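User: I've been going back and forth on whether these two constructs are worth ordering. Before I decide, could you fold them both?

Assistant: Sure. I'll take them in the order you sent them. The first construct and its structure tokens:
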Amino acid sequence: MELKVGTQNLITGMYICGLDRPWLDTPFLAPGHLINDDNDIAELKIHCNYVYIDTERGVKAEIHIDAPVTPTQNYLDDFLDQDKRRAVYRDQKPPLDDLPAAKTALETAFVEIAQIMDNTGRDENLDLDAIKATVRPLLDSMIGNVEALSWMSSARGNEDIQKQATDNCALALVFAKHLGLYREDRKVLAMGMLLLDVGKLKISANILNKPGSLTKTEFAATKKHVEFGVKILRNTSGISESIIGMVQTHHERFDGSGYPSGLEGEQIPVCGLIAAIIDTYNAMTRKTLYRGAIAHHKVLQELYRWRDKYFHGELVDQFLQCLGAYSTGELVEMTSGEVGIVIAQNPGDRLRPTVNMLLDELKNPWEVNPRIDLSTNRVDENGIERNILRTLKPGAYGIGESHSACN
């Protein structure tokens, strides 16, 4: 059972399963931390007002906070000028048909951005033409089918800077399409997300790859990546101020609690607000040296919890609508016991995607995998409503590469 507890009421032996802010904004880095001593409590008090504890994995709390989350009633209506929201994109092919092209575009981008960053680490400036050339095929693939890029990005999941950059870029294009941004705006957003953490090239690998909590000194050192990144961009002729602004503000938070400048609300540029959400989502869903990947739907729940506090509320709403509760490529188990993989989103009902069924209710493989659009096929042949019961970890029930969405 999870309980919300004020940091003034923490005691040794409690198991921290969530914070009132992104873990990346603290030295603890990864969800899941057992309070070992008073030093842990003191550190939590510095960074948090309250936390969430798991009473089944640690000491229970005698005092806790009851604060239910209420759904938003507001919609995104003014964060962009209306003339920048008129682009409407219609996928020309089903998601799976564009998967090979998207895979090629993303893998090529990774190789190219790795080379660019290698050169940047030595020279402290960027090859702007190379960056533009890297982004161009991603833009073209995104127009072909956005879900294919989303799928390929979600299938990656490693901790190095280059892979973070390509993941961030791909998801930015997914979100940009959802928001209806024109090509030039999407290009700026994609380039900014590729370069978001370029300053980490100047941070010690021992700190970046440390398999545990950071000390205060180490955490302060990681924050310097923003300053280093801005310096690299300033040394590069032709980089737009919008891209520099993204890099400079992607760790600012809507309530002013971020860094490096403590900006809040409308002081943060729109691209910076978008970058903060995407970067946090990708960081939490990515497997790292010190923890496993956090489930997609759990990360979305956390982002919703932080809306209007750390992140722009309407943008969070749009991000959740964009991705859906179940991401493309995610394994799910139905209430019937059947197991399948999400192959497409339904914009009108994000809780009811299209699922390619892999196993029947007895967990036996189908001879021919049925594809069911849960938004239009709400009940089965027996009149029982079809619903997703839960998401599954990759490899559940022996499902591996041989059980792909393409089968």
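The second construct, handled the same way:
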Amino acid sequence: MLQCWSAQKSYLPDVIVRTEGCWMHTDDGRKIFDLRSAHECINLGFNHPRILDAMQKQMNSLIYITDDFASEPTALLAKKLSDITPGEGNKKVWFGQSGAGAVEAALKVARFYKYNQLLEKGREAFQGSNQYPYPYKIISRYRSWHGAGGSAMSASGDPRRWFGEPVSMPGVVFAPDAYPYRSPFGEDPDGHRAADYLEYIIEMEGGSGFVAAVIVEPVVGSNGIIPAPKAYMKRVREICDKHGLLLIVDETMTGLGRTGKMLAIEHYDVVPDILVMGKALGVYCPLSACIVSAEVASTFDDYIFGHGQSFSGHALACRAALESLKVIEEEGILENTVKLGEYLHQELKKLGDKHPSVGEVRGLGLMWTLELVKDRESKKPIRSTGEKYDDNPVKELADFLYNEKDIYLPSDKFGVWIMPPLIVTADEIDMIVSALDKALEITDDYYTGNNS
């Protein structure tokens, strides 16, 4: 195997032979807690009996058929996703196998939509369009990750984007993030300055004659678990409406209850034009979805939707997703996420007060991070953007938790990553917090307490 995002000479993985709930069992008898929910894909934990039973029944009838045909689970899931996402009904859904594939679909939808508008309305309907073929630019943000596909990576500000250069997809422009703790604009608690600068970029990039869409994660994932301020998300929607742009919301990591609501965008009372889901959607099967508003989707009634994947609409994956949505709705998963998320928050705040290397405790639902700093006053990070793959204190902390406390969390993040399955218990949270208390002594050793 080639391990993702790693040099291969040190790849000697432990062998997992069994999983249950939040735990992984190795072939040498270790029991390891998965504090990142299997790359944020297993929100409901491993081996949920209801989902396994639904999958087994589906396997006895139909596993996969191309989207030249219809299947019951695929149709039912498309209807369900149309119903639970914000906005009016009759949305259209495209199914893929990865968040990156669904993001690529979303970017294509936005660009095709703008091109089709140009054909129907003429160039005079767009700003400055006489000097340009059609609006195709995408405004993303620097602290974003939308996937490892060519288009999705190009639209990501994450340092992993650098692996794709210099052959990145053209037409992506990056805006600053709404990041109150580390804002480039100084004090900006509500993100107003970040939103103003986003609009400035849109105007400087040519407005509606050149720009097709803005893509955001409502809670930034891989680059810091940063919930957007509510006022900021409202302004982004208003800016898109003002300039005639589409708003793409990427919920690959935040969907399916992770933040205490089915979708993170529900915290903001904002309706996107296109919404992307992935990771936990298919539970134990690769599945993603690009959900398109009825208005935008209608452009493909007469024009071709130029995108596809061989396993689009995989019946088995869709059946698993349908059952997972029932589990979330019927087994109090959202309520548990809110309740235990607040408990986790309070316990993490105690750690933040105790350990000087914790600059900020930040998150939502059961999606949290401890931002680690060398100095609280200057907010100098323990791991900078360019050090993502370098050995540093964050990796030391992660190695300690894995080797000494039997807790797995990623070692390549910019702080401590805390994303347990949504079925986590209070006792398990206590175990996690106790282990983190000890592990943070490692990063405290790197704390300078001055501005050097």
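Notes on the second construct follow. The mean pLDDT is 95. The first helix runs from residue 37 to 40.
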